[in-house]
Amino acid sequence: MKKFFKKTFMVFSALALVLVLAGFGLLMLSNARSFQLFGKLTDRVDTGRKVAALTFDDGPAGNTGEVLDILRDKNAKATFYVIGQSVELYPDQTRAIAARGHELGNHSYSHSRLILKSPSRVELEIEKTNELIRGAGYAGEITFRPPYGKKLVVLPWYLSRNNIETVMWDVEPDTEHAGDAGAILDYTLEKTEPGSIILLHPFGPEGSADIRALPEIIDGLREEGYSFVTVSELKKMDSEN
Ligand SMILES: [Zn+2]
After folding, report:
1. pLDDT digits over 47-70, tens only?
2. Same domain, 96 and 215
3. In terms of domains, do 77 and 151 share one?
4. Same domain, yes or no, for 2 and 100?
5. 141 shares a domain with 208
6. How far is the CA of 25 from the centre of ligand 1 (A)?
7. Do 161 and 217 belong together in one domain?
8. Which residue, among 78, 58, 81, has the nearest Cα to 69 in the 3D structure?
9. Which of 57, 58, 170, 210 is catalytic?
10. Does residue 217 register a pLDDT over 80?
11. Which of 2, 74, 192, 206 has CB 3.0 to 4.6 Å from 218, enough for a Cys bridge?
12. pLDDT band at residue 28 using 50, 70 and 90 as cut-offs
């Protein structure tokens, strides 16, 4: 009897270990910045040219004008990954982004983690937001950035079936340095490479630091010879294409 329990315990232990490892693997997969199961994902592009894309997530918000004015003063183009619900709240700000020649990307309708969600929910999150973006007068390519960078099976499958590209990032200054404009600036200047996609959150709770850092990020990278392009312009410069 004792032997039986020992054996059962060992089998269960092994099973538990397998489940933990599988869970860990799925977590890694859902967070991967440069890989997904289906369709094209871009986190940066291979190019010899000193170009970078500034991307702003989670907008629009009441302070959209501040970001747009900095970009106008610095004569730089950027890409805004907007949330459908926020577009409904701030239609004028969304139209202003499009009217000033910036790119609009889809960052879902509700900003929920799109893992373990039904295909119909994923479809709604994407299509409703695309309609809102078109309604704001934007006519260019719309790429998708997953909320929290999370994707697993249904989301990449839906995107690839509908020819929508996933865009992540390779420079994320405010992940470690939220609220610290000086550190955001230093990190961005240090980590940006030709073809980088820079992720900022000017509309978040600590977004004022990102906004304070933005003019200096643009000036600092320009001094190093960089110019700023939108995500779809950057993708065209990929020497691997
Ligand atoms: Zn987000």
Report:
1. 999 999 999 999 999 999 999 999
2. yes
3. yes
4. no
5. yes
6. 23
7. yes
8. 78
9. 57
10. yes
11. 74
12. confident
Identity of residue 195: G
**Residue 201 a catalytic site member:** yes
Q: Total domain count for the chain?
A: 2
Structural domain including 204 reads 41-236
Is 8 in the same domain as 26? yes
CA of 8 to the centre of ligand 1 (A): 45
| Residue showing tokens 């291979």 | 46
What's the whole-model pTM score?
0.91
Across the chain, how many H-helices and E-strands are there? Answer: 10, 7
Give yes or no: residues 3 and 72 share one domain: no
CA of 1 to the centre of ligand 1 (A): 55
Q: Which two tokens stand for residue 86?
A: 């926020």
Taking each helix axis from N to C end, the angle separating 181-191 and 207-223, rounded to the nearest 10 degrees, works out to 40
Q: pLDDT value at position 52?
A: 98
Would the CA dihedral through 78, 163, 127, 150 be positive or negative?
A: negative
170 is catalytic: no
Is the same domain home to 49 and 22? no
Question: Residues 127-133: what's their mean pLDDT?
Answer: 98
